[in-house]
Amino acid sequence: MLKTAVVGAGNWGQNLVQTLDQMGVLAAVVETDPAQKENLAKKYNNLVIYEDFRQLLDNPEIQALLIATPAPTHYPLARAALLAGKDVFLEKPMVLSSADAENLVELAGQKERVLMVGHLLLYQPAIQWLKQYILSGAVGDLRILSQERLKLGRVRANEDVLWSFGVHDIAVLLYLVGQSPEAVEATGQCVLQPQIADDVYVHLTFKSGVKANLHVSWLWPEQHRRLTVIGSEAMLVYNELEQTVTLHRKGISSGLAVRDQGCEVVFHGSAEPLRLECEHFLQAVEQRKAPLSDGCSAIDVIKILESASKEIAGTVKQKGGQDV
After folding, report:
1. 103: how many CB neighbours lie within 10 A of its CB?
2. Which CATH topology does 122-271+305-319 take?
3. Could you tell me which of 263, 241, 236, 248 has the C-alpha nearest to residue 146?
């Protein structure tokens, strides 16, 4: 039976530990925090807990690692794991530069190892339904995608709201459009901390003519997690909080007349895609095939984050570090 290990059992790593344990494939955890180690030992019988990551690499029985440590550690840990012949799942963001992402993809190819990135939203059944609905042609020509991820709180001191909130959404936008953008624009504001954007808008332009935009903020009075898809024949709204997709039979004719034939909820999804994501990773490892959110797809996400961050940083410098 395939054996896996989780590296880092912090806030999100605990979810991976629990899910893999329920699936019967968890063999070990790497964790250095004494309190976390004690909690793991109490909750999971016979679980091997390593303090040293190198001990895990030396265990030939463990084939696949799921890394859920802070983002700056992703590159060295993943590189060491691939060199040791392990298959690797990396939580988002994959790494902090496209150069590091490309290096990991190249190394995984050389070692013939699976490299998957935790773009969790791709594994929501609603997103898969949206992809198939768009491909069916029922929305007509795809024109606009608009994503919102807004709430109050979860402010970070070591990364801005785009890198914290926007990674999943950018992955989804690229997946639904099916191509990389030819232009990236970004604006935002640094309100709470210098040089760390709290409210960001990203605009993507694709060669096909599709436009996509993303608004992320941790300085917002209400929580919104919503994706709107606008086509020539219909419109769709995915409410992530309610896990519903609503079809709007609406549009504007060539004569600029409004067409409104009502709306209806056409899909109810699941709010727990983590098990589906883990199952997908294990299947990729067992079948030796590329996962949906492989390293190559993640490179495009990191490049967009880099481009957007450069625009934001440049404007911060011009305006003295506040409005961007």
Report:
1. 17
2. Dihydrodipicolinate Reductase; domain 2 (3.30.360)
3. 236
